[in-house]
Amino acid sequence: MTTEILISLLTLIVLEIVLGIDNIIFISILSDKLPPENRKKARLVGLSLALVLRLILLAGISWIMKLDKTLMTVSGIDFSGKDLILIAGGFFLLYKSNKEIFEKTEEGEHASSTPVPKSFVKIIGQILLLDLVFSIDSIITAVGLVDELWVMYAAVIVSISIMLAVAGAISSFISKHPSLKILALCFLMMIGVTLIAEGLDFHIPKQYIYFSMAFSFFVNMMQIRKTSK
């Protein structure tokens, strides 16, 4: 354990947590569709699946790296396996985010007082699909940062453990404030657009995305604080 490896480990843990925030938000919003007694279980299963997927993908790291190889070229744009997965995941996020916003606004007046509980298996299936997209992106990012496989394993395990610890608090906080739900869904739409752009080989600087998300969250929190007073 050299100083360089320790710094790489800590950097990768922080990066995995930052990238995992999207996952937590998505899982929190979907788990809210379930009966209260199943929500914690859905968050636990969703993040556990994310951990298992990442560990499996790390075990097949050589196959993962092949996803960066060009599969086809369309209109001068090279598409790899990773690109196709990111584009599909981006469109799925856009679809789900728009659908959730519509349900929470346009359909709000017509919704019954006793909403029909969603299928636990269906919700977990949707979580698993996004886990796969985020996991592949996360692993390829990790490979670009460090060479030691055990560092990647350690970073994944520690980061998912931290996310498991805070997922309940984040989910509860989002559930208490309807405006935060809409804002979180808008964040997911931004992430969806970013994934599609990356799949099309158009790289949007991450700092722009994170700054706009942080600023929007700050303004929203100021409004919540003002209203509560």
UniProtKB/TrEMBL annotation:
<keyword id="KW-0812">Transmembrane</keyword>
<dbReference type="Pfam" id="PF03741">
    <property type="entry name" value="TerC"/>
</dbReference>
<feature type="transmembrane region" description="Helical">
    <location>
        <begin position="182"/>
        <end position="202"/>
    </location>
</feature>
<feature type="transmembrane region" description="Helical">
    <location>
        <begin position="208"/>
        <end position="224"/>
    </location>
</feature>
<dbReference type="InterPro" id="IPR005496">
    <property type="entry name" value="Integral_membrane_TerC"/>
</dbReference>
<keyword id="KW-0472">Membrane</keyword>
<keyword id="KW-1133">Transmembrane helix</keyword>
<feature type="transmembrane region" description="Helical">
    <location>
        <begin position="127"/>
        <end position="146"/>
    </location>
</feature>
<feature type="transmembrane region" description="Helical">
    <location>
        <begin position="152"/>
        <end position="170"/>
    </location>
</feature>
<feature type="transmembrane region" description="Helical">
    <location>
        <begin position="6"/>
        <end position="30"/>
    </location>
</feature>
<protein>
    <submittedName>
        <fullName>TerC family protein</fullName>
    </submittedName>
</protein>
<comment type="similarity">
    <text>Belongs to the TerC family.</text>
</comment>
<feature type="transmembrane region" description="Helical">
    <location>
        <begin position="42"/>
        <end position="65"/>
    </location>
</feature>
